[in-house]
Amino acid sequence: MASERIILSGDEAVAEAALCCGVNLGVGYPGTPSTEVLEHLAKIGGKAQWAPNEKVALEVGAGVGFGGGRTIVTMKHVGLNVAADPLFTLAYTGTKGAIVILVADDPGMASSQNEQDNRNYAKAAKLPMLEPADSQEAYDFMIRAVEISEKFQIPVLLRMTTRVCHSKCIVDRWKPVEAPKESDFEFAVKERVMVPAFARPAHVRLEEKMKTIAASAEANVLAQKETGSADLGIICSGISYQHVKEAFPEASVLKLGLTWPLLIEPVKEFAAGVKRCVVVEEGDKFLAEAIRAEGVAVEAKPDAFVFGELSVSRVKKLVAGDTTPEPAAAPGRPPQLCPGCPHRKSFEGLRDLNCIVSGDIGCYTLGTLPPFNAIHTTVCMGASIGVALGLRRSLKEADARRVVSVIGDSTFMHSGLTGVAEMVYNRPATGHLLIILDNSTTAMTGLQEHSATGRSLNMEPANQVNIEAVCRAMGVDHVDVVDSTTEHERYMELIRERLASNDVSVIIAKRPCILQIKKLAKFQKGGAK
Fold first, then answer.
1. Is the separation of the CB atoms in 226 and 208 below 8 Å?
2. Distance linking the first and last C-alpha atoms of the chain
3. DSSP string spanning 186-236?
4. Is the dihedral of CA 5, 7, 13, 19 positive or negative?
5. Is-above-0.90 flag for pTM?
6. What is the pLDDT of residues 307-363, one digit of tens each?
């Protein structure tokens, strides 16, 4: 394929690069702002699939890499928490093929419960991390990540942020498309089986790999110096570079495309050539602290700029050391459940029965807002069950009997199964009630399929997990399926009965998302490919 210039978002650019690299499989769990990577990969002809959660996705990706294939594993920032268990060990095992882990951070929490900085995972797990500043670099760095992963036989983290994921620019799609390759299995037990005797030397090899990567030409070409005024030098990475160039076009700039391991020699050389050196970065003071630890005098940003996204105006204030309070943002329209959403009647019922509701992650989290005011805790995917079971054991009996867990169908498949196991195994004296709000989609991230919908990522028929049968098989005393909209009185009576008993119960409030109905109708007419 000849070079072609097209307009792409950062997510789309990564998908295009993955196709060009001949990835055998893209696998992940949907989560804004990473979702569109796999959706676009499937759209342009690549093989992509949704896993039940990020841990499973990374384990599938590990198998692809162990077999000599190439894979991209995608998730949003909190998804890497779920995948952290295999992540740290994969750094020890290494890989035969390429394993690229795309993690999309969400500074400012546009659609997340926290704004953690996942550069810290690269340091903690001892894995290389690349950080593109725009769609072109997203395309280029995905290709570079594949090359680094295969050359050094190590998984590579590709860190994106909300603005890079969703902003669009012209991309030179220069790499011809490679066909996915298949390999013969190679036995490498000492490298792949992490018993202590094999893990100890693997740790030593990992430390040496990181030193070798930091000194390599592949890494150091990613430190790009732009010479400007010697009075001000700015070290930055990712989207911060775009803000810096607009805020201080006259400054000298060192843009680090590889943010871990730290490329200390280019940093030292750059800092020595300017009178004042400031590190501008979104999130934690990650680079500034790492550079200072190496004895290089640089200025870190004031604490006020640890929070939220950066912008041109904020970067100007950051460099000036101006920590005066910023004007409050204009109030926007609060998020709300869609008109006709099946969750509306579910939450109205919980509100009217004065339940204490342990909630979960999904569009139904909006049930915490008026007029419902019907969710009282939300922590992370799947936590609705465990948190509620803990409440049942700490509250007086009258309050304990009001506690209900609420979880969506996709979130249930992601992290709810182990919660049900806990509910059945360590059942409280007052029993417990779990309500699964089954709208047959992963709604908040854009109506993606999951393992209980009966459809694959590209909307083809797929094997379907039966949530009702799974709950019965796990030993739940009562499993009821009801439409809380058309059978509202029955729904209310079921809640009253189950809360009054000492049994463990599941109510599946099943009614399709109205937006998903429209999507399926469009697909069936041939309007969505």
1. no
2. 23
3. ---HHHH---HHHHHHHHHHHHHHHHHHHHSHHHHTTEEEE--EEEEEEEE
4. negative
5. yes
6. 999 999 999 999 999 999 988 878 878 888 999 899 999 999 999 999 999 999 998
